[in-house]
Amino acid sequence: MTSSNQPHPHHDRGLEFDLSTLLSRRRTLGVLLGAGTSAALAACTPGTGGGSATPSSTASAAATATQGTTPAASPSPTGTVTRAFAECRVEIPEETLGPYPGDGSNGPNVLEASGVVRRDITSSFGTSTRKAEGVPLTVTLTLLDNANGCAPLAGAAVYAWHCDRDGKYSLYDDGVENENYLRGVQEADANGQLTFTTIFPGAYSGRWPHIHFEVFESMGNTTAAGQVLAVSQIALTEAACKDVYASAGYEASARNFPRTTLKTDMVFRDDGAIYQLATMSGSVTGGYTAALNVTV
Q1: What is the CATH number of the domain that holds 179?
Q2: Is 179 domain-assigned?
Q3: How many domains does the chain have?
Q4: Mean pLDDT split into 10-residue runs, the chain, 296 residues
Q5: Which residues, 6 or more positions from 273, have their beta carbon under 8 angstroms from its beta carbon?
């Protein structure tokens, strides 16, 4: 990959404008939240084998509410749900930002751009509207406050980014250095939850398929140095990867994916990604969902 330190040009009013707009919307939405589903954020305990985890008997209802319902029966891998929740008292493992964060720590800083606060990150914003093509993927994170009995971390913010289906990172790689797609910021709601709409990332040489993310205490801290609560990565399940990479457009990923396992991946090999492996379900034709509890 060839890096470029030239950020994507923008002609709008920056992140502060986005934040003021978002706060106005929050005041309107606040009355709609009601009691929420805070009871559904009970503790989960890791399983004993295969690098996956099983919800405890006291938290089975919570797991269903926060991470999706497991199908009673599934005739194919596309319906399989692999559960691997972060136990409430186990904080999400700290991982590298990687060489293409786009947060100002290594070249361009997309966090200073108006338009970065968004749920749908499939398209570039600013002077380009190019869209990243691929199998649809919806990612939901539930943020839990370890220092406060695993209460929902309402009001925290997450910056998420990942490569496209060709394994390229916007802002950096040749051909996409003037794009900023597959990057975005979201604020956690009263239940500590936030969701991104994106595409299934590709597999490139040396890495298991993953999504990077940073957790900030608040939206206002996303551009403040030293205000990061956690830096980690989401691992995608083997079954979902195999199905997606067998589809059109992911030919390079189909070749790269078999070369790296969770046990050999430079990031996940410590524990097989037991606290970072998403709960996933879906299909190539209908799209996939991925969910993970993130304790910080």
Answers
A1: 2.60.130.10
A2: yes
A3: 1
A4: 36 38 36 34 32 30 33 33 54 95 95 96 96 98 93 97 98 98 98 98 97 95 80 98 98 98 96 95 98 95
A5: 51, 84, 208, 235, 262, 265
